[in-house]
Amino acid sequence: EFHVDVEKLSIRAAFAIAYMAAKANEHLTRMIRRDRAESLVTQSDRLLSTYF
């Protein structure tokens, strides 16, 4: 019984770790996308200010 409980716990822990990793990855990709979008906006602003 104890062995089964340990297996259940380890499976639960693995799921928790996978879930946290997925959440962290999602957060990072969102941050990277936002940074890229901001850099694109600043670049276009620079181009506009040089031409107009």
Task: Write a structural description.
One of its GO terms (molecular function) is acyltransferase activity. This is Dihydrolipoamide acyltransferase. Keywords: Acyltransferase, Transferase. This protein has 52 residues and is mainly alpha-helical. The chain is built from one helix and no strands. It has one helix at residues 2-51. The mean pLDDT is 83.
What distinguishing features does this structure have?
mainly alpha; 1 helix; transferase; Dihydrolipoamide acyltransferase; 96% helix; acyltransferase; acyltransferase activity
* Strand count: 0
Helix-strand makeup class: mainly alpha
Level of helix content?
over 70%
Q: Enumerate the spans where pLDDT stays under 50 for 5 or more consecutive residues.
A: none
Largest sheet features: none
Oligomer: single chain
Strand content: under 5%
Amino- and carboxy-terminal Cα gap? 76 Å
Number of helices: 1
Shape: rod-shaped
Please tell me how large the radius of gyration is.
22 Å
Helices and strands, in order, run as H
Residue-averaged pLDDT, rounded? 83
Protein name: Dihydrolipoamide acyltransferase
Keywords: Acyltransferase, Transferase
GO molecular function: acyltransferase activity
